[in-house]
Amino acid sequence: MSSFFRSIGLSLDGGDFKAMNLKFVPLMFVVISTVLVDVVRSNVTEHVVHFALFYLFVIWYLLNWGYMLSVTLTKPGGYPNSAPRAYTAEGAIYRVKCSIENTFESMVCFIIAVIICDKVADDNAQELIASWAVLVMLTRTIYPVFYIGDIDFLRAFSFALSMMSIHFMFLVSFFPEFQSFVKST
């Protein structure tokens, strides 16, 4: 699936600043407009979900800036413009690049969950959805730290926890029985 997203241009292979901003600005416009609509509607629990989405975009953007700065500033003798991919093919810089791509790809799942939960879920489910959105936000914040630090078990655990939270958002939206099961436990 990740190769499909990369084939249609939903990754930042090479850390190109122009490509990053071409993706970031329209996505931020959509997220900010959604948050403004929520402010008008004054639904506090939806604010949490959309803030989590906004937060993930900011994390992704900051990771990209860190990646570009690390690529250009850490190489003795400067950035190898003739072979940029060979320079980023190993080590911590490669893991930074991979964490950027994975963060962006996981945001696609989260965006779909937010849209579906916004349209399908009833008011009783909004509190559960908001708590899982916060869990996604927290796990996706520590995920790049584990990825860059090459702590594979914790990286896989944080990834699984964030994806499980996204799946729970779907389950709560579509199955009211799941809401009562979760609230009773």
Automatic annotation (TrEMBL):
Record's GO cellular component terms: membrane
Compartment(s) of residence: Membrane
Source taxon at top rank: Eukaryota
InterPro entries for the chain: MAPEG-like_dom_sf, Membr-assoc_MAPEG
Keyword set includes Transmembrane: yes
Pfam families: MAPEG (PF01124)
Segments passing through the bilayer: 20-40, 47-67, 129-149, 156-175
Keywords for this protein: Membrane, Transmembrane, Transmembrane helix
UniProt entry tagged with the keyword Transmembrane helix: yes
Protein name: Uncharacterized protein
